[in-house]
Structures are given as C-alpha cells and as structure tokens.
Amino acid sequence: MSDTKTRILDLAEALTQTNGFNGFSYIDLANHMGIKTASVHYHFKKKDELAAALVARTHERHSEGFKAIENEIASPTARLHALIEYFQRYIEDKKFCLCGMMAAELQSVSPHVANLVRKYFDDFRTWLKRQFDQAGKKDADRLALGFLSALEGSLLLGRLNDDPKYIADALQDFVKP
What we know:
Elements: H1 3-19, H2 26-33, H3 37-43, H4 47-72, H5 76-92, H6 98-104, H7 111-134, H8 140-161, H9 165-171
Helix pairs in contact: 1-2, 2-3, 4-7, 5-7, 5-8, 5-9, 6-7, 7-8, 8-9
C-alpha cells in the first residue's frame, strides 16, 4: 500500500472516530494532509470506497487482535477483561469504535459497506460467544449479544461523559467468574 494511501486511511479513520464518517470530506482530508483532492480521489475514487477500506482494515486489525488475545491469555474471562481495557482506550483517546460509528451512520453508506459492517459485528459476536462457551456459560450467544450491545452503548456514554469506566461498569456482570 502506498504511503499516501496509508496516510489517507489513517486520517480518515481518526476523523471517523472523532467526527463520524459524514463529518469530513475529501477536501478536509486533502487540506489536513497538504495534498490535492485529486490525490485522495486517485486512491479512493468515491467516498464509499474509502468507507469499505476503513471497515475492512478495522475488521482485519480487530480479528488479529482477538487472535492475539486468545494466544496470549489462557482464561476466557481474562480475555474479556483485556477486551474491555482495549475499548476503554477509545474513550481515553477521545475516539469511538469505527465500525460502531459506521453502524450509526448506516443509512448513508452503500449496501456493500453496510454488509462489511454487519460482517464485522457478526465476527465480533462469534468471538465473544466462543469466550462465553469456553468459560462454561449457558446461553453463550445471548451473552455475546448482550456484551456487544453493552460495549457499544457504554462507548457512547463513556464518550459523552469522558469517562472510560462506563465500559467496565456496564460489562462487569459479563466478566464475573
């Protein structure tokens, strides 16, 4: 991937996580980077292509991160605690989950991007279900849905109140041994 393309993705990710995907334009990207809008269009002809690339990159990063958590941490409950700590950093960094932000703006993205966002959350839920299954919890799929829903909701409230503890507080019942 070219350096300019990576820089565009990095900036678009940061802007999406702070302002929302609809909160910036290609002109904003170009101005922040000191390049021409034609350079942005060269790498991503339409904003929808940029959205798809952002979701795909986030999905890949999180999938790799989830695998690393599983490889490094033996206990499924400890893995969930590690995940909570990871998402608390979003609040500390004044950001929001990129795919959560895209889900909130779903009506303004293409069906292709919407499907990528759904796939991200389906895979996230499957990973969570596996953790609850391995922890011996009954109704692991329902718990995974509840955890994911509470996580995304607590991200909103934590961001609103500038308090990352909202996440741990909202998820504490899910991570009891």
